[in-house]
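_Per-residue structure_
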Amino acid sequence: MIRQAIKVMEITKSKLLCVILVIVTLSILSPIYPNVQAQTNIPFTSADKFAIPIYNGTISFALNGSYSQATLQNDSWNFVNLRLTRSFPLQNFTISVLNCNITVISYSSTNITRQTRQLRYSVEGDGKQIFNFGEALTGGGQFSSVDWSVITENNVFLAEGEGWTISKTRTITVNEPTGTYRVVDWGIFGITGSNGPFYAQHSVAIATGVVVGIIICVSIILTIRSRKHSSEKEFSENLEIIQKQMRTESQEENK
């Protein structure tokens, strides 16, 4: 009975420590996920068009998607929490066109050693396409040509100033004819602000934290089990000593 009670106590302690570790982890992660809230997402389809009448242009998307807010301000469409099917979300994305129609095809983001992002779109007409991802350049914008690229469908890299420009507010203006293009942010130099969910920007740090948490949890369990085995062994040895003493005393009494 005593041995069973010890086992129950050790198992309970192990489970309790794991529960405490989970609660602490969740309490740490909860404040860094401010976007995990109930939001009203407005769906749209590939047939929907977002027009800019004064600029003689329209914006559409190749895939269905949703956003929490879309407003036409200063002759530009601003989307909040824009998400296309099978694409990464854009928390703050502003787009405008002049004398052309564009279709946004996809938006992707990777974060291995640095965050690299890519917007792919097609254009009809000889006009301008203007994009802003809700960020400002650091250092006065001297590294803008290194950070960003505009690439044609034939994988030709357009030189800055010859087909596209970038401002200190990271507004990309592309002036190219009908075709398919990619606007790429290589993430070589630091940026001010962020666009995209926390887990997309810091996936490596989060993964590392999860792995460390698992290692700590496993270490605690192994330590508890090791102590449990040691306690059981010590208890068995003490029990044998007591039993021997009781047998010895019993034999002496019988004499």
Observations:
- Confidence is low (pLDDT under 50) at residues 28-37, 137-142, 191-204.
